[in-house]
Amino acid sequence: MFPKHKRIIDKKMIQACRKRRCEYCGAVTNIEPHHINTRGSGGGDIKENLIQLCTQCHINAHSGVLSKEECLEVVAMREGISIDAVYTINRKAMGYDV
Ligand SMILES: [Zn+2]
Ligand SMILES: [Zn+2]
């Protein structure tokens, strides 16, 4: 007998599936990805640099009402790492010597 179907729980996958909501305010409509460090400034397409935001939070993020630090905090909580680690990963991705 084969063992019962093993439950493979990939936390990251589950989180990815759940991400269709604003990671800042929890809204479920008009969700779009935002690059915390803009592509123009060298920000990468890495999960540590991406946050799903609703239109309003997205506007706030671009106008500075929602600060980069707040976004990075959300990412740090989501990834279960420190804000420092998020900073470091992003700086590395941007080609800095950290
Ligand atoms: Zn929002
Ligand atoms: Zn954006």
Q: Which descriptors apply to this entry?
A:
single chain, 98 residues, alpha+beta, 10% strand, binds zinc ion
Overview of this structure, please?
The protein is α+β, with helices and mostly antiparallel strands and 98 residues long. The chain has one domain. 41% of the residues lie in helices and 10% in strands. A two-stranded antiparallel ribbon has the order 1-2. The longest helix is centred in the C-terminal third of the chain and has 12 residues, at 68-79. The mean pLDDT is 88. Bound molecules: zinc ion (2 copies). One zinc ion is lined by residues 34-35, 58, 61-62.
Give me the secondary-structure topology.
Blueprint: H1 11-18, E1 31-35, E2 50-54, H2 55-63, H3 68-79, H4 83-93
The structure holds zinc ion (2 copies).
Q: Spell out the helices and strands N to C.
A: HEEHHH
Low-pLDDT stretches are none
Spatial order of the strands forming the largest sheet: 1-2
Bound molecules: zinc ion
Structural class: alpha+beta
What is the distance, rounded to the nearest whole angstrom, between the alpha carbons of the first and last residues? 53 Å
Helix content: 40-55%
| Secondary structure tally, helices | 4
Mind summarizing the main beta sheet? 2 strands, antiparallel
Give a short synopsis of this structure.
The chain is an alpha+beta fold and 98 residues long. Helices cover 41% and strands 10% of the residues.
